[in-house]
Amino acid sequence: MKIAMANDHAGRGLKNEIKALLESWGHEVVDFGTHTDDPADLPDFVYPAAMAVARGEVDRGIFVDGVGYGSAMIANKVSGVYAAVCQDSFCAELARSHSDTNVLCLGGKIIGSAIALEIVRVWMETEWLGRDEPKYARRVQKVVDINNAQLVAVK
């Protein structure tokens, strides 16, 4: 799988740990940065990574900032991106199995690396239940319909 990664200065260390784990599993990582601990503006890195997800240039995205919400807020502004902030593996499982999220957002100041790596493992391994369970397919389709209606309404 090809994974876009992005971060600000607060998420750089954890992003690098996750990147190493993903690569050890054989995934290709496209790293949108930042690559330093200097203060950085999150949209400069998350927006291009989210666009790569939306365009299908990558299969999924994992974005890391201080809390996770900034990344999710930016990513969810991009049509076709469905981002969730997860702070435990239970939420990660539900974000994939029930909601078919394609972007995981993590807070480097909120969770330690052991929990973060477990969240990533669960999120990466969990399949969407909508292929076999009509209720999940119906619910996700409603979100997609809202996304598409907004595209028309804004124009």
Main beta-sheet strand count, sense and barrel state:
5 strands, parallel
What is the end-to-end distance? 34 Å
Number of helices: 6
- Look at the helices and sheets and give the structural class: alpha/beta
The shape, in one word, is: globular
The strand line-up of the biggest sheet is: 2-1-3-5-4
Q: pLDDT under 50 segments (min length 5)?
A: none
Number of strand elements: 5
Give the proportion of residues in helices: 40-55%
Backbone CA Rg: 15 Å
The portion of residues forming beta strands comes to: 15-25%
Q: What is the typical, i.e. mean, pLDDT?
A: 95
User: What letter string, H or E per element, gives the SSE order?
Assistant: EHEHEHEHEHH
Structure commentary:
Helix 1 (12-24) packs across helix 5 (113-125) and helix 4 (89-97) packs parallel to helix 5 (113-125). Helix 4 (89-97) links the parallel strand 4 (83-85) and strand 5 (103-107). Strands 2-1-3-5-4 form a five-stranded parallel beta sheet, sandwiched between helices. The chain is built from six helices and five strands, in the order βαβαβαβαβαα. The radius of gyration is 15 Å and the shape is globular. The chain is 48% helix and 15% strand. The mean pLDDT is 95. The chain is an alpha/beta fold and 155 residues long.
Key structural traits:
155 residues, alpha/beta, five-stranded parallel β-sheet, 6 helices, 5 strands
Give the SSE map.
Layout: E1 2-7, H1 12-24, E2 28-31, H2 43-54, E3 60-65, H3 69-75, E4 83-85, H4 89-97, E5 103-107, H5 113-125, H6 134-154
Parallel strand pairs: 1-2, 1-3, 3-5, 4-5
